[in-house]
Amino acid sequence: MSAAAPKPRVLLGLTGSVASTKAKELVGLLISFAEVKVVKTAAAAHFFETDALVGQGCEVYGDADDWHSWEKKGDPVLHIDLRKWADLLVIAPLSANTLAKITSGVCDNLLTSVVRAWDFGKPMLVAPAMNTFMWDSPFTAKQLNVLRELGVHVMEPVSKTLACGDTGKGALPPPLEIANRCRTLLCVGSDR
């Protein structure tokens, strides 16, 4: 009897969008076919309980973890280790703020440092989620073009009534659609 193939490894980035409230649902879908680790920005932490994700069996990292894991030359560097570990980087939701940072090369937190070090020979998927006015900004269009030029897969937001009460495009796609896109990028069948 042969051993089961190892599960692919998904690194999920959560950013400061109210759509981070869907983190538990998304993680639940991803862990059905992949090993999952989560990197949260400080702003994302306002929208979900870290313990809920840990309870699903995944490790959750924040900015402080990057600094506390290193004391001297030769020690592990967390953002590099996560970059090496992951087969796929998914940022869902991708806030307007983090979009601007990563397309400018800013690496001032754990997640943006992972992106800056990312091997673009491996897939990256982003699912922007922001207010309609932010989505419609010419800055957003330019920044998304930068990602696409790098080969990043972009899932368009959906139209609905947003958390602020406005109605329009900017909501996170359903977690099931994000998970299915991850399956496709990882070439993982739905039988797992």
TrEMBL record:
Positions of transmembrane segments: none
Pathway annotation from the record: Cofactor biosynthesis; coenzyme A biosynthesis; CoA from (R)-pantothenate: step 3/5
Pfam families, A to Z: Flavoprotein
EC number: 4.1.1.36
GO BP terms: coenzyme A biosynthetic process
Enzyme's top EC category: lyase
Gene Ontology CC terms: phosphopantothenoylcysteine decarboxylase complex
Molecular function as annotated in GO: FMN binding; phosphopantothenoylcysteine decarboxylase activity
Keyword Acetylation attached: no
UniProt keyword annotations, A-Z: Coenzyme A biosynthesis
Ranges for domain Flavoprotein: 9-179
Family: Belongs to the HFCD (homooligomeric flavin containing Cys decarboxylase) superfamily.
PANTHER family: HOMO-OLIGOMERIC FLAVIN CONTAINING CYS DECARBOXYLASE FAMILY, PHOSPHOPANTOTHENOYLCYSTEINE DECARBOXYLASE
Name this polypeptide is given: phosphopantothenoylcysteine decarboxylase
